[in-house]
Amino acid sequence: MSFLRSILVSSPLIVLSTVVLGTLSILASLVDKSGRTQHRLARLWGKILLAVSFIRVRAEGLEKLDPSGTYVFVANHGSLMDIPALLKTLRYEFRFFAKKGLYKIPFLGTHLRRAGHLPVDRSSARASLKSMTEGAHIIAEKQISVLLFPEGGRVSEEEGTREYKEGAAYIAIKAGVPIVPIAIIGMRPLLPMGSLHIKSGRVTVRVGEPISTANLKIGDRVELTQRLAAEIAGMLGDPIPAAQAAPR
């Protein structure tokens, strides 16, 4: 029954809402170059996807954030439904980093570009650094937060936890804003990698304490990344990636 609901109800409604709101977002970008309208439409899209998938999201720790603050948000990533959950939970305007390949997909790529999201080319260290620097400029100049998945993409249950990349720490230090660890708990079993079966259930988005980057230098990004890995692993109850476990 759950599988039939997913195929016959949830999936068609997800496609429909994506096409409708994606079209509205592209049209809005013709008159609103700031990306604010597109972000509001994206939040609505996220809420609709969760509703038609019968996934309830509970937020914990939002009181730790300054409503007027600007942050680098960092979260674990195990499901395609993670972004809708974060869009629904985080009441901040933010841009996220997406794989460069996604920008080549018709319709989706147009939306990502016009909404101001940033492509990441992981095949080139120079291009990746350029994207990170652009992210820092967005925060510093436009006072808009950014969201990153430091594991570099979705992680399967078999993989557990990947080593965190240093991009988020680099951006936060360069922009001089706090970095916020976030744990998405319970989403991966509802829509695992490679599956079309969306299961209903409850998910928790747990926000950790913002970590100040005041007085930190770019060279401190490794230590900051280790701390992020430890914070998120602690909230998830997962082991810290061996390469980033703090030496004793």
* CATH T-level fold name: Glycerol-3-phosphate (1)-acyltransferase
* CATH H level, superfamily name: Glycerol-3-phosphate (1)-acyltransferase
The spatial strand order of the largest sheet comes to 1-7-6-2-5-3-4
**Rg:** 18 Å
Which term fits the overall shape?
globular
Characterization of the model:
The protein has 248 residues and is α/β, with parallel strands linked by helices. The chain has one domain: Glycerol-3-phosphate (1)-acyltransferase (3-Layer(aba) Sandwich), CATH 3.40.1130. The protein contains 7 helices and 7 strands, in the order ααββαβαβαβαββα. The longest helix is centred in the N-terminal third of the chain and has 28 residues, at 2-29. The relative contact order is 0.17.
List keywords for this structure.
248 residues; alpha/beta; Glycerol-3-phosphate (1)-acyltransferase; 7-stranded mixed β-sheet
In short:
By secondary structure, the protein is of the alpha/beta class. 42% of the residues lie in helices and 15% in strands.
Write the layout of secondary structure elements.
Layout lengths: L1 H28 L6 H17 L2 E6 L11 E4 L6 H8 L4 E6 L8 H8 L2 E3 L4 H18 L2 E4 L18 H9 L3 E7 L15 E7 L13 H16 L12
Parallel strand pairs: 1-7, 2-5, 2-6, 3-4, 3-5
Antiparallel strand pairs: 6-7
